[in-house]
Amino acid sequence: MNDLLNLNIYFDENYWLDDRKLFTTDIYQSSIFNSYYRYLYKKQKPLNSKFIKSGPQKLVNNTLKSFSNRSDVVFNNDTYNNYYFCSYSLKHKKNLLDILGGSNKVIVGPLYSIEDFLELVRLTYEYKNLKILCASNSARKTMLKIGNIIDNEDSIIVFPVGISSKIQILKNKKERKLETKTDCLVYFKGRKKIELDTIIKNLKFKNLSYEIFEYGKYSNSRLIKAAKTSKFGIVLGRTESQGIGINELMSTNLPLFVIDSLENYFNNKVYEGTSVPYWDKKCGVKIDSMNYFNNKFPNFLKSVESDEYQPYQLIVDKLSYEAMSNNLEQAFRKISF
Questions:
Q1: Helices 93-100 and 114-126: crossing angle, nearest 10°?
Q2: What are the pLDDT digits (tens) for 263-294?
């Protein structure tokens, strides 16, 4: 086995657990379960997907699924010289500096605040064995601008978290064909209600059945089940650094019609963005404005019926657990002092 796969992975579950309240509409998101969740994380066991709604938690959970059965990877432990910190905050700075001062290679991200990111940027000028991780090229462009990085661009690297294993992706593809019941799955996140109303009006006009999934109001397991039983999906989402939820839809081989969001607003500034950082023509159709909906949607439906789209291929190639493992290996290989 390649020595570069000998890896310590660190994560801090407090990143998403600390702000939870006792009384919530979703019992699984209540702080009453925090002790149980921390126990599972201590045992390095991923959670059942029904317990997860937040992107950061899903990222770490998928990382656990990717590597928990590997003998050459440990979690929250110092065993090897390669370190991957999924999350970072200034309270971990002393530990990070101790590690950077040795003969170790370190990758951090993509979970950090802007203040923590700027601190990491300053550290990359001092420590060449430190790289900052972004989940996609579009996110990297934004972070380079926020960090005003013009002479140290190779300190920001890109790779996404894995969505599923190749075996599971192929299994999902087969199951979706066998169980299709609903015409359309509508994925709605951070957009105007009037845009959603326009989509629903069009679906009703064409006598197409649909189910709406609004971000933060569904369980992950229910989303995947619906993706397997739908003919196609419509994505009305905001800009994403990776878009794990959308990637999971594609992992079931669900063709997508995406109304893209191209502008990412942060601190009164506008940055380039997209709702689908990982995309190609095999995945479906992407439009930049609702104005193009009526023009593009009919041809999309015809292509769906003729089974032209194969989004699972993109997931296998770039977003599988196996691809994530390879990306990590290559990233550590390129780090030099």
A1: 20
A2: 877 667 778 899 999 999 999 999 999 999 99
